[in-house]
Structure formats: C-alpha cells, structure tokens
Amino acid sequence: SYIKETDITAPYFLNARKEYAYYTRTVEGLSYAIHARRGEGGLGPEEILLDENERAEGKKHFDVADVDPSPSEKLLCWSFDENGDETYDAVVQDIATGKELDRITRIDSGIVWGDDQTIFYMKMDEAHRPFQLWRHTLGDAAEKDVLLYEEKDEEFWPGIDITVDHRYLTLATGTSDTSEEWIMDLTEPEPKLRLVAERDEGVEYSCDYREGHLYVLNNADERNFKVDVVKIDDMDGTRKPWKPLVNKSGEKVFGGSPDVSLSSVSCYRTFMVVYGRQDGLQRGWIVDTLPGAVEAMDVHQLEFPEEACDFGEGANCIYDTDVVRLSYSSMIQPPTCYDYNVKERKLTVVKEKEVPHYDKSKYEVYRTKIKSHDGAMVPVQFVYRKGNEPGPPKNAPMHLYGYGSYGMNEDPSFSSGLLPMIDRGVVHCVANIRGGSEMGYFTWYQEQGKYLAKKNTFLDFIAVAEYMVDNDYTRSDKLMIEGRSAGGLLMGTVTNMRPDLFKVVIAGVPFVDVLTTVADPSIPLSVGEWTEWGNPNNKKYYEYIKSYSPVDNVKPGAYPSMLVTVGLNDPRVAYWEGHKWVALLRENKTNEEEEPVLIKTDMNSGHFSASDRYKNLAEHAFEMAFALDRLGLADTPAK
Questions:
Q1: Residue 485 bears catalytic tag
Q2: DSSP strand E in 395-531: where?
Q3: Of 513, 570, 602, 612, which residue is the catalytic one?
Q4: Any bridge partners for residue 279, and if so which?
Q5: Could you read off the pLDDT of 330-378 as tens digits, one per residue?
Q6: Is residue 607 annotated as part of the catalytic site, yes or no?
Q7: Any catalytic annotation for residue 109?
Q8: What DSSP character marks residue 522?
Q9: Which of 300, 302, 389, 408 could form a disulfide with 284 if both were Cys (CB 3.0 to 4.6 A apart)?
Q10: Are the C-beta atoms of residues 349 and 338 closer than 8 Å to each other?
Q11: Smallest Cα–Cα separation from 63: which of 80, 88, 85, 79?
Q12: Which residue among the candidates 372, 413, 437, 485 is catalytic per the annotation?
C-alpha cells in the first residue's frame, strides 16, 4: 500500500505568542482525524482538542469542516455535517474540560471568531445558498443573534473570512464574473460592515489588509488582473480612491502583461505574496515592503524544485513574520510543507508526506501542448513509469482526466491513489482544457470557456484524446477517461460526441441534466449557475445548452463501458441526474452486453463521497478495479 495510515500534519502556531502548536493526526484503523495541540511552544504534552472518531461513532457520515480555537486559545469552535448535504452545526466547547458551551444549528460550514464571546456565521436559504451573515454571542439564545448582512440577489454567493492579523472580518459576495466585498474592524467598540466598492457587472476583486490599507486584486480595466491599494480611511464605496501598487520609481508592479494572470494576494506586515499563472503554470511573487509604507521595495519570484507543480498557502496565522508557509507537490513529488524565508529567499522543508514503498526515481513527468479544433494549444501533463526510452511509452493503456469549468485549475499534483494503476502500465494524463484558467483567467475561462463558448471545453478534450491515439501514445480500446461533477458533464458530452474514441468512462457525481436543472430556479443552487452556463430562460442559451447537455443528446448506438457514481444527499448535483442519464444510456445502447453501464449510489454521502477515509479508499478502489477490468488489466501485476 502507498497509504501511511498513522500520520501527522506539520504543526503551526495560531498567533505570535507561539504558546501552542496545532496539528492533526490519523491512526491506523481509525477512520477519522484527531485534532490536537502541544503547549510550551510545541514541546509540551499532547492535548486532544477533537477526536472525530469518538464523535462519529454510530454515524454513517461525519464530515468536520472548520476547527478553530478562539483568540485566547481557551475555547474551540468546530462545525460538522452528519448527512453529506453540507448543512452544518457548530459546537463551542471549553478546551480544558471538553464541556460543550454552545451550539449553532443549520448553518454554512465557515465560522469566524470575533473575541472569545463572539462568533460570526452564515445562514443558508431554501436553495442551499449562504445568504445571511449573523453575529452570535456565546450563551445567548439563537433568537438574540444579530443579522448583519443579507444577500438578496440569488445569483450572488457570499462567504466570510478573517485577515491574518485578526483585525478585520471580510465578507465577499459574488458570481462567476462579478464581486463585491465588505470589511468589519473587530477592534472597534461597535463593529460595522463597510463597503469596499459596490458591485459593477463584470468587475471582480478581492482584497487583503496591511498597515492601514487594503491591497485589492481586481480586473477593472485589466482583464488579467492587477493590484491596487486603498487607504481604509479613504474608502467611499467606489473604486475612485484605488491607486496602482507601484515600486520606488512609481512604476506599476503588476498588470499589463498579456501572458501573466493574477489570482490572489496575501498580506503580511513587511511583505505580500501574489499568486498567479504564466504559460499554463502556477507562479508566485514576493513583494517586499517597509512597515507602514505602501510602495513595493523589491519583487522576486518564488522558485520550487519543479516548474510544473501545484503550490499554495499553508497555515499562516502570524502577521508580523518573515516566513510564509507553503504547500507544494508535483505529479511525482508527494505533498511537502515548506517554510519560505522572504529575506533569505530560502525554502525549508517542514514536512514531506511519507508514501510507503514509493520510489520517486521510478516515475517520470512529461508536459506538452496539443492543438485543439480552433488552433488553441491545450497543456497536457503525463506521469508514467520510466521505461528504457525517454518520454511517454507508446501504445499504452491511458487514464485521461479533465474538468474544465468555473475557472478552476487542474494543476500537476501528487496522487498516491493513482500509483497502483500507473504501476500496471497505465499512463495518467491531465488535460488543461478551456473552462479552467490554466492559460489565463480571461482568455481560457471568461472569453473561451463558458456561456456560448462552452463547447470549446469538450472539443479541447476530444482533440487531446485524438492526439493520443493518432500519435500512438494509446489506442481507443485502451483509453479510459474520468471526470467529476462538472467534469462528469464533460464525460457525458464527449461520450455522446465521440463514443468510438473511448473504452472506459468514469463519471463521478456527474452534472448531466444541465438544461432541466439550470432552467428550474426551485432546484438548489440553479440560479447561481446562470453566470456560468447562461440562463436557459433566454432562448439563445436554451438552445445552446440543449445542444450539449448529456441527457438531451443520448442517441442509439454503441457506447463505452461506463461507471457512474452518485450520492443520495448531494446538494450540488442531485442523485437523480446520474440515474436519469444511465436509464437513457441503457435504453439506447446497442452493445450493453459487451460494454456495460453501471451506476453506484452511496446512500449515506453527498457530493464529496464518503467521510470515512477507509470507505473513501474503498470507493476509489472500486472505480479503479472497474477500469482495470474493462481495460483487460485486472490480472496484471504491479511492477
């Protein structure tokens, strides 16, 4: 097995006091995590904060979301879901005694502490959309909670967070192409929300706090995003006070580059980290500043061992620091926790996840770009067992994965769950098709990957599959494809378009009844989808969606072997979508005996499969066993 069952995460400190080091660990044989801490700067005895195994006993599903100590570190608030429907309760308990002090029911997963007596949370509407921000005082009845904000536009989805210095609560609300933010100074005697800039259709922005200013990542007049700065005292609810982030010479630091797209900014007292993309790959830049100053003193790019990788922010809870924690992995590098010293420009390994029996030297990564139907070049990442010749093997069984929606990226990351398949000679590939943001948020997603350009997503995937076959990397009778959720939509559409191109299809919680679901505002989350696919109550969007929606385009004929998985309590993609699709496939399929269509329903979970880690592994093993069997590799031993 490549799974280390007893393991522990890298410890982190919650604040500059560094009194307690927090971590999560797992134990062989136990299905859930244990959240713990050690005092004396991490050197003291272990103190268990929450043992999910005890709480999950007797329950068929138990998903813990936020686990947050209070500012004094004397209380703990954690949220949980017992059905898989993503409706949460939050519990507040005394850390010293374990006694439950308070409970907030039927809320969204995210909670934010104010002081030790105040918690902020979001309520959801009938469509399962977070829409109201509430303030709760510990010990008070729920009826006394105070409503602070209500998002009345059903297309907007709000959420809350807190700045690293714990001074400002942030409320961000938005669609897939428009956003708006509010901030609340928690140090004020009577904190109130202040609007950063009112929503303006097509303008997206997000912000972080540093030294009396907000640093605002935005696409106003810059489609690939730029960084502006506004003094909080000057905010007037518009973009007028925003000024570009400049260096000592007065030159703009970010914005204006056609091949660089920015995605987020994180602020600390003497530096910022700006995240983005270039040439399909993740990038990160450190912006050095002086305390109290606004200008950028220096900018340098983060450098990692491999250029093609997946990295992001780790647990960073200290504002006045020279070190930022980062998570990192690649297709052959297991997840690694780094501390990056911005002054020394040095990465230090805090923890590399141990993968038993794994030898990195036996695997190889290859990256290329493949021409799509309209000339767009689609990045593709390969990982496979090394052979006698360099480069990917020829005529090999292949597992091609794709997603391509909501601007979400499929970066080259490590998956121990794929190793048993790769060890049996399968080449694993990820196609960075349009609908994601890999080649730029505006071009790859907003302009060419949604609304009336959505078919580029499907045609890109087909172009990649055809390239693999035409260039002898695989054959159609050796090609397996997989996608989940909106990636399940991808699976359904490309299978309808080219059923002859694939041998095996795995579609997890697939969004396949697009037209019916998005056209009905009474179905949870449907209205919020209009800024992704278009509103089918408008004729042009209706006809376009109908032309690719999988259940509306199943035709009599031969189809590949297919495995469809759904969750009974899924609030994002209803289980009946998969069942409806499978019924249509079985009715129209002319080769059912040779290439079966199976559907598997988890009666106790939702969109993200089983919460029990062993059951989750079993679900994944079932999917891989089905695929290997249909590819004729069930009896092939691992190398």
A1: yes
A2: 398-401, 427-431, 479-484, 504-508
A3: 570
A4: none
A5: 999 999 999 999 999 999 999 999 999 999 999 999 999 999 999 999 9
A6: yes
A7: no
A8: T
A9: 302
A10: yes
A11: 80
A12: 485
